[in-house]
Design goal:
A hairpin with a 2-residue loop joins strand 7 and strand 8. Helices cover 18% and strands 46% of the residues. It contains two helices and ten strands; from the N terminus they run E-E-H-E-E-E-E-H-E-E-E-E. The strands form two sheets. It has a seven-stranded mixed β-sheet with strand order 1-5-6-3-4-10-9. Strands 2-7-8 form a three-stranded mixed β-sheet. The chain is α/β, with parallel strands linked by helices. It has a single domain, classed as HesB-like domain (Hypothetical Protein Aq_1857, Chain: A, Sandwich). The radius of gyration is 13 Å and the shape is globular.
Length: 114
């Protein structure tokens, strides 16, 4: 059974939840956003987003407006306390992670260093 996230573990902003719900509806999938962290990117680690069919048994799960954000235990160690937001600007629209654990990031906002 997936672990329900403590508010300090990770959060999903209302704008990100609305965007995930819209994407999931268009694709006929459940409104579940998976955030994972992989090695690589300009700064050492990079964020990966994708729709999930269901949480894995060991995932940490946060919910906002009926939309779930799921994070595996290894990635959670790198993003604990973070907020996933959806921002739109002249440069485009994207999910953005506000990660208190990141010591440095890159200009594109998709990679970070600890």
């Amino acid at each position: 059974m997936a672990e329900v996230a403590d508010i300090s573990d990770i959060t999903l902003s209302p704008s990100a939840a609305a965007r995930v719900a819209a994407i999931a509806e268009r694709q006929g999938k459940p409104a579940i956003l998976r955030l994972s962290v992989e090695g690589g990117g300009c700064s050492g680690f990079q964020y990966r987003f994708g729709l999930a069919d269901a949480p894995d048994a060991d995932d940490c799960v946060a919910e906002t407006s009926g939309v779930r954000l799921v994070v595996d235990p290894v990635s959670l160690d790198l993003v604990r306390g973070a907020c996933v937001d959806f921002v739109e600007s002249l440069g485009g629209a994207a999910f953005r992670v506000e990660n208190p654990n990141a010591a440095a990031g890159c200009g594109c906002g998709s990679s970070f260093a600890i």
